[in-house]
Amino acid sequence: MKRGKELAVGGFRDFYPELYQKIDRILRAFREIPQLFGYIEYECPTVEPLQLFQLKSGTELVEETFKVTDRKNRQLVLRPETTPSLARMLAAQQQYYPRPIRWYSVSRVFRDETQQRGRVKEFWQLNVDLLGTEDIGADAEIINVLAAIIQSLGFTAEDFVIRINDRRLIQSYIESLGLINYLEIIRILDRRDKFLQEAIISQLTEEGTPAKKAEEIALTLRHFFVGNQQERPKLPRSKQIDEIIENLPQIQQNAIIDALENSGIPREVAVQLTDFSSIKGSPAEFLKLIEQVELTNETRQALEPLRQLATQLDDLGIIACCEYDASIARGLDYYTGVVFEAWDRGKGLPRAIAGGGRYDDLVGILEGQPLPGTGFGFGETVILEIAEEKGLLPPPKPGADLYIAPVSKKQLGDCRQIATQLRTAGIRTLFNGFTWSLKKYLDDASKRQIPYVAIVGPRELAKDAVNLRNMKTGKEKEVKIARLADTIRTALNQ
Description:
Blueprint (H helix, E strand, L loop, with lengths): L2 H4 L10 H20 L3 E2 L5 E3 H7 L2 H5 L2 E4 L5 E4 L4 H11 L7 E10 L11 E10 L4 H17 L7 E7 H10 L5 H9 L1 H15 L4 H16 L12 H8 L1 H15 L4 H11 L2 E2 L1 H8 L6 H6 L1 H12 L6 E4 L12 E7 L7 E7 L14 E7 H10 L12 E5 L5 H13 L4 E3 L6 H10 L4 E5 L1 H5 L2 E6 L5 E5 H13 L1
Parallel strand pairs: 1-5, 7-9, 13-14, 13-15
Antiparallel strand pairs: 2-4, 3-4, 5-6, 6-12, 7-10, 8-9, 10-11, 11-12, 15-16, 16-17
Helix pairs in contact: 2-6, 6-16, 7-8, 9-10, 9-12, 12-13
């Protein structure tokens, strides 16, 4: 094994230039789109107290943190997300900023979770937050920002969907059934797809399938069920698997009911909860379907924000990529209202792209003044993978726009001056100030795929000019040095 690979830490990526250019395209969208909506950038520490995330993020995320201890024996973590840090910062100084506050950050975050497709231990995450208002217009705007970022990368409404729900609706319905442990129930409902996978594994192993094989089949069937189900999953043809595929909805329903029963909920109530959480469709379809359920007045009132939101999503022109889904709950404890997740809806395995929601109590818990907020987190790993599959990312750019090649060493001084002038004018210029032959310069420019070469010789310099070669066509023309920057700029724009 090569020493460089041997010393690499699994789950942490090396970003070679051709990969980093693709990621940079996504990071630029992460910054440019929020700025179009009037958001400003902030940053927070890479290391935070463990207690901050114990208060804010729930036990599951805390278990996935990288924990460290400093010289004072304080328990710290590498930030797994930035929303708790944002709450901490605003709890200390929110009075200095006019409301509503529109902030975003593009930060590297760290999670010590199991490696799998689309999941790594270190990645960039965009966080966009709108704080200081309870108006449903804030939720609509945040969802609009998310949709605009995805669309700016070349995705259409056929490529992705934003699934939306409201925690207040779920909570109200749970409480209308006489239950009080709504957070525990929401966590169960949020894991519905995991329960399906576990139920399939259990069924397969009981019927004699080896454990590892059962896990592979169950994961494939889970992805198939969550996705568009356009094509039968690539699994061996067998009566056993065909029956499972045919009964996936019932298997999932039974798995959720069993999980709810195991938490102490009577079976009849567990069935009601499962049926309610299965309602989904376009905003109009969802609202029509849910009206057919027997609801208390309080639960009907909890539907009103979703009604208002649907109108605004339509006004913003993004309703075609939005779906209401009563199963969307988001596992983090701090969500208190509208919640949403963006998903790839291509023909392949469905993948979650981003997620967020309203968290009205987040700053208040840290003893700051109440500051209602809504926002989302958006990692770059999944969107990068999907964009590459769809061919949406541009090919890597060369390291420079222009290469300067002297005919002999006598022109080196002039070339240095020309390079400085061009760089000052904003032209990316590569010049190797070595005693190479002209052929070696041209070969080097070709290897680096630099589109233009300025050949500098005594005859050209006598006219205050260079010989500009288009490396793709091989054509050359004489260009005055004073006009060289504009000529390159015009050629690049064409």
